[in-house]
Amino acid sequence: MDFFLQQTVNAVSLGGTYALLALGLAVVFSIMGLINFAHGELMTIAGYVLMYCGLAGLPFVLSIGLAIGAATVAAVLMERIAFRPVRNASGATMLITSFAVSMVLQVLFQNLISVRSQPVLLPPLLTDSVRMFGFVIGVNKLLSIAATVVMLIFLDWFMKRQKTGIAMRAAAEDFAVARLMGIRANSVIAGAFALSGLLAGVAAVLWVSQRASVDPLMGFTPVLKAFIAAILGGLGSLRGAVAGGFLLGFIEIYLAAYLPPEWQEFRDPIGLVLVVIVLLIRPNGLIPAPALKAHKV
Amino acid sequence: MLTASPRNMAIALAAAAAFVIVAALVASGLGAASERVLSVFFISLIAVVGIGIYSGNSGVLSFGHLSFMAVGAYVSALLTLPAAMKAATLPKLPAWLAATELGLFPAILVAIVVTCAFALVVGLAVGRLDGSAATIATLGLLIITHGVIIGWRDVTRGSGTFFGVPRETSLWVAAGWCIAALVVARLYRDSVSGLRLRASRENAIAAGAVGVDMKRERLISWILSAAVMAVSGALIAHFLGAFSPKKFYFVDTFQLLAMLIVGGMTTVTGAVTGAVTITVVTEVLRRFESGFDIGAFTVPQVFGTTQIGIALIILFAMFRKAEGLAGLKEWEERVFTRRGAEKTAATLPAVSDRSALTAEHMTMRFGGLTAVNDVSVTLRPGEIVGLIGPNGSGKTTLLNMLSGVLEPTEGTSRLGETKLDGLPTHRIAELGIARTFQNIRLFPSLTVEQNVLVAGLSTGSGEDARARAEAALARLGVAGHADKDAGTFSYGDQRRIEIARALACQPKLLFLDEPAAGMNREETDALMETLRGLTRELGIGILLVDHDLKLINSLCDRILVLNEGRLIASGAPAEIRRDPAVIEAYLGTSQTQDDPAEPGHQPTEENDP
Fold it and tell me: Which residues cross the membrane (chain A) (predicted)?
């Protein structure tokens, strides 16, 4: 039972990170139909900022703020430079553009920073663990869960109570009509990218605090998982992205914990097959996007 | 069966073969290094056209095709690996496999069969998803396959190198298979299945309405493309002699996709253009990667020069030419445009089966809104029935339910004795109900002729498809447009082309959703004559939605009036004009006794869900 609870904490922690990343993807996708492959590079940027701040001896809390800020700014710049020219193009065109952006950034990191993985200085508190309810939990896991909860509450408030957030939801349901209502396309898209950058930044801090290192391809794997989480939840659906992120986290952690040793090698394929089974039952994801219902003939 | 002109196709195929042969001759003259580069190019090109067969024709980008390449590579390599080598490196292989030692050619054939079986299973699953979700699902396929190959150590040596494969892929072997792949891809694009798939790429709903079973066509192209990928995988395995699962993962996926997309994924010309461009740029940049001198300056070694080069080409292509360097047409389609269609003698056959469409208690609810509420209608071949009502009264929703685009919340419909409930749109089209759309839904980058031909090919078992298509175009007076892209025409022409396309389905019943919208008086009058001809000469039944009450009144035998989702009146035009409920619905008051046709209800854009 203890083992199960322990694994559940791990699952919530990992699932939360996936959920934040998937949310960032979903915010952008729901508005402009772009699957942003360069989302992972936003994470990597935040990771490198953490690394440099650590080297410069800045307090960790300040480093976190700078890292998240850097990812947010980078996301807005990315939209302005690379995605605006292809804004009204097909999904495939945008996807491939984002993939090229991702490639350019990776090569820049390799040349300007290092090809190899770099250590990130973390406060010793993060690597500690505490005893709670009779079992041991890493501080980083607890903080990660707390950060996820705070971000989800913030996002819910932002999307429901803030003008920009409501505008984004309107744009996600029907961009053309939203623009006719006086919502500015540039600002709502820039806002969506800023939000996705913010979420990527927070996810990057959580990711790095578990691993204490950063490399040019750091963002690739988690964002790949986030893509799958976003589909699992329902592409373009924000609630779906959260649900998908957590479900994927649970699937991965429980498989790692309970799959017999001889099957462990097939853990990732088995996890994905489970995802596929869910999708076969619900082809539009766990919580389909509202835009699907507004589909016109 | 081919849908393109045989002469053009022969030219295209001969040119593709000539291109490969000339390239191979040049390279073999230049020495071993060039031969290697060209062999890799040929193998990559096979993979690029392989992905293109599915992604190009269906419009669904796939990241998963390298799994098929991997299956092809491992299966063929396991078959050709010398038995002694298997005993040494893969001791746990089952006995029958350990003893097998095939040549490259039979090994490729087996690899194709195994890969196709694998693709069939995967395709049935992926086929349930659409658009971006399907794309990400193929990404999942890539990860799953990679994971299984790494995990299945007894057969694949896991993440380690699979070595000792006989290097049997010579330049000419690669060239031969490359020609075969180009021919297959080019033939498929202009086959019946390929044309149907391209129509569904342009507009999935319209494709269904003219009888295209999109899922089936997607599955066919998916399996065919998997077969081509298997060849590419087998060849690269037997070219390198040693490979690891990494060879079939993200890096190569992106490189091949870059080739396909930079060139233009909808054509074979594009695949070749992209493969040549990326290969040339990669080869040039590779020489600069380790640093070089320009005059007095020394440029230092830069990691990933080729990667940056490829990325910049992609960005350039996406910003400047989003449909790819080669555009949307094959080269010979641009060069050898066909002459305008000759006068056709073909005529459309009259409707023989006169069974009626009966719909009872049709109801459609969208959340809390009841768009159509308990409406029952009957429609017989040979009559023209008008369906009118104020904006938002549920006319288009009713059409959508009757044609299978929407599944009614309640109600049943049948054509003669055949129940239509729950049938997909393409089955309903096959049964003889064709339609047009309020917001025109043509296949914009197919020619007018292809637009109509695909309808003919997808209904009535495809019999006399070409004759039906020509006759339909002639009847609507748009035969002269046959060779141009449908998307380039004026609103009125597009409406006529859409009606011709519906007519090519050889329907018993034809639903027209605001056919006269965007037409002037003369055009509307001409359209009226055409529609009369369809009922009088061919016996087709027409259900006509329009806001032009003059058109409705003078054309229709019966008129149905909807208001707020309910059928409030039905009868002959003269009765409808006097019906107080109709007058109230149109004018908002029952006091006036004006003819609703008189106030000149303006045709307005309507957007019923």
Answer: 12-37, 49-77, 89-113, 133-159, 188-210, 271-292
